[in-house]
Design brief:
Blueprint lengths: L3 H26 L14 H29 L1
Helix pairs in contact: 1-2
Length: 73
């Protein structure tokens, strides 16, 4: 038996997380490599996905900066 209130809360958390993922990924696609996801207060599963996305963006940012530095030399 699932409490309807808890189920709605979980659905809202998922919707908010998906919105945050989408916003940050859209910003990244536009070239904003400083965009990050604030996972504070999220459940462990959503936080793990958010951290993975942030790590991916950080890696991309590092690679882009390395390429820029190589071009300057």
């Amino acid at each position: 038996w699932i409490d309807v209130t808890e189920e709605r809360k979980r659905e809202a958390e998922h919707a908010n997380a998906i919105s945050a993922f989408s916003k940050v990924l859209d910003e990244t696609a536009k070239g904003n490599l400083s965009a990050r996801i604030d996972t504070k207060g999220w459940n462990e599963e959503l936080e793990t996905i958010g951290i993975a996305i942030d790590t991916l963006i950080e890696s991309l940012e590092y690679t882009v900066n390395e390429l820029k530095n190589t071009e300057k030399c």
